[in-house]
Design goal:
Elements: H1 12-22, E1 27-31, E2 35-36, H2 76-79, H3 82-90, E3 93-96, E4 103-108, H4 111-120, E5 125-128, E6 133-138, E7 144-148, E8 151-154, E9 160-161, E10 171-172, H5 175-184, H6 207-222, H7 228-243, H8 251-263, H9 268-281
């Protein structure tokens, strides 16, 4: 006789996560401060090749909830497994990956931002937040912070805190929202540094060395839970010190670092200032 599957007795954030996962929503736990859990020792500084540093969204291979949005899953066996048990005991909230289910959250942080949305964007499902509202649209897109005063875009490769199902009918993502990020993607100034004299090949041009350096820098920024301004500056300083004098850095590398900083709430201006100050400190 076939035995029935045991019923999981869970409550709190894990119960919410399982309910969402059952509806196909990728979820993960958040620790105190509403931030993801830090990388485990095996994954520290992306020594595991952590998924958040990749160009496209996808699951993390680590069994622990280690890599923010990339750890989000709908698998109940992972959510209730021993590798996640400690995280759920300490969890303060549940997060979800909007882009992982083909959605975009327009995060409106204050009354003026909400008023702008009501004037400018088509009505859709809304969720009340502590200070404003989340407007949820059907369709995924690149994410970006501070696209205008009090407005962030949360979709691919970021997480959003789960605050309930909201009210209203989800509508198609409008071009107005997509255009906000297109206009935002110009914070990086071209890097103009001299190639080493003597015609020798730059040792930093090896793809593995350079890629690992940029990936570690991205991870250092995204893992910051406090002192983000200082972390961004120190990281830019370290990258420029290692790679800035040989001509190996490209605009794409800097775009990745700027994007990592902006996911932590930095503005394009702060990123540019930190980059400029780091170059000045190094005499570049």
């Amino acid at each position: 006789m076939t035995q029935p599957t045991p019923i999981r007795r869970v409550s709190g954030p894990l119960r919410t996560a399982l309910d969402l996962a059952d509806r196909g929503v990728p979820v993960l736990p958040l620790s105190k401060g509403k931030v993801p859990f830090a990388n485990c020792p095996a994954c520290l500084y992306t020594s595991c090749g952590g998924r958040p540093n990749m160009k496209t969204p996808g699951p993390c291979a680590c069994p622990r909830p280690c890599h923010a949005w990339a750890a989000a899953t709908t698998d109940p066996d992972i959510l209730t497994g021993p590798a996640w048990a400690r995280a759920w005991k300490q969890a303060a909230a549940v997060a979800w990956h909007p882009g992982g289910i083909g959605l975009t959250v327009v995060d409106l942080d204050h009354a003026d931002a909400i008023a702008w949305a009501r004037r400018t964007l088509p009505a859709t499902r809304t969720v009340a937040t502590t200070r404003g509202e989340h407007w949820i649209y059907q369709g995924a897109m690149p994410s970006a912070n501070d696209v205008r005063d009090g407005v962030d875009i949360k979709s691919t490769m970021v997480y959003a805190r789960w605050l309930g199902p909201g009210t209203g009918t989800i509508t198609i993502l409008p071009d107005t929202v997509r255009a906000l990020v297109v206009r935002k993607q110009s914070p990086v100034r071209p890097v103009s540094v001299p190639v080493p004299a003597g015609g020798g090949e730059c040792p930093h041009r090896t793809p593995v060395f350079l890629e690992r350096g940029i990936a570690m820098a991205e991870q250092r920024i995204t893992a910051a839970t406090s002192g983000v301004h200082a972390t961004v500056y120190r990281t830019f300083l370290a990258v420029l010190s290692a790679h800035g004098r040989c001509g190996c850095l490209t605009e794409n590398h800097m775009s990745r670092l700027f994007a990592a900083a902006q996911t932590k709430g930095e503005t394009a201006r702060h990123c540019t200032d930190a980059w400029t100050n780091a170059r000045t400190a190094l005499g570049m």
